[in-house]
């Protein structure tokens, strides 16, 4: 056994109790509620409840809206991440701070902001309604916009980090060979940061799937049109707790699947 291994074992053996006890309490604080959810689940009636019309409708709407919101975030977020990472613009620090505001902003406040801008009497929404007859609040499109608003920072941060970590010499080589900026981005830059794009997309999709506050504020709660899974959990909790538990289990399963899908990224991040 090498001296370094002996030293590491010695350090591990001297773990202070004052840190171990709070660590165990913190672990219990995070895991016990989830275990309680599993323990109270109506396993006997789970299949019937899982395939009920209400659950399937909410699940379908959630999956469709989260996917469309992720597409919106990809179309707008990747160029935004490129500007932050490679663009020579003034005030990038302030711009980055503004982009990450939805991460710390209460989702309900985000919904109110969207309503004030895109509502029928909003700064932009009034013209959409008067000129084109388009009304976004309290519609399925409103759900997509609300989810994209709160989820886009996850994609932008992930892609920006990947762009900063990518070697710019390949892009410079493509430029010297006569490739245009757009061709270089498509054929060189984007493939190089594809793992970051995928990871950001998964996180963005998961965040959109679990969005509640901005959705109920901007899009309302209309079954079959704007009632996503989180909203269905909230409604069922008042009238049918078992149905709320089943819906919560579905969202928990999705969260676990997301973590498993990103496990390689987490491992690389801590190694």
Q: Tell how many strands the DSSP assignment holds.
A: 0
Please describe the biggest sheet, giving its number of strands, its sense, and whether it closes into a barrel. Answer: none
Low-confidence stretches: none
Mean pLDDT reading:
84
How many helices does DSSP assign? 16
Shape: globular
What order do the SSEs take from the amino end to the carboxyl end, as H and E? HHHHHHHHHHHHHHHH
Report the portion of residues in β strands. Answer: under 5%
Helix proportion range: over 70%
| Separation, N- and C-terminal Cα atoms | 23 Å
- Please state the CA-atom Rg, rounded to the nearest Å: 23 Å
Look at the helices and sheets and give the structural class: mainly alpha
């Amino acid at each position: 056994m090498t001296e370094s291994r002996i030293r590491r074992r010695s350090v591990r053996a001297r773990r202070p109790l004052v840190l171990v006890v709070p660590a165990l309490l913190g672990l219990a604080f995070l895991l016990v509620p989830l275990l309680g959810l599993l323990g109270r689940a109506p396993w006997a009636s789970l299949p019937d409840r899982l395939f009920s019309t209400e659950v399937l409708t909410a699940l379908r709407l959630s999956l469709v809206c989260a996917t469309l919101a992720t597409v919106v975030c990809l179309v707008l977020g990747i160029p935004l991440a490129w500007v932050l990472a490679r663009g020579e613009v003034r005030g990038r620090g302030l711009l980055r701070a503004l982009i990450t505001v939805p991460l710390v902003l209460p989702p309900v406040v985000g919904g109110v902001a969207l309503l004030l801008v895109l509502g029928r009497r909003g700064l932009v929404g009034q013209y959409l309604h008067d000129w084109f007859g388009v009304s976004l609040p309290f519609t399925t499109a409103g759900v997509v916009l609300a989810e994209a608003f709160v989820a886009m920072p996850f994609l932008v941060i992930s892609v920006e980090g990947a762009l900063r970590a990518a070697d710019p010499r390949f892009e410079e080589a493509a430029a010297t060979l006569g490739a245009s900026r757009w061709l270089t981005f498509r054929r060189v830059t984007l493939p190089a940061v594809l793992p970051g794009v995928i990871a950001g997309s998964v996180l963005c999709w998961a965040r959109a799937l679990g969005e509640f506050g901005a959705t109920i504020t901007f899009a309302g709660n209309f079954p079959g049109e704007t009632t996503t899974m989180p909203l269905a959990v909230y409604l069922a909790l008042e009238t049918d707790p078992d149905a709320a538990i089943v819906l919560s289990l579905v969202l928990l399963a999705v969260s676990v699947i997301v973590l498993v899908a990103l496990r390689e990224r987490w491992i690389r991040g801590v190694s």
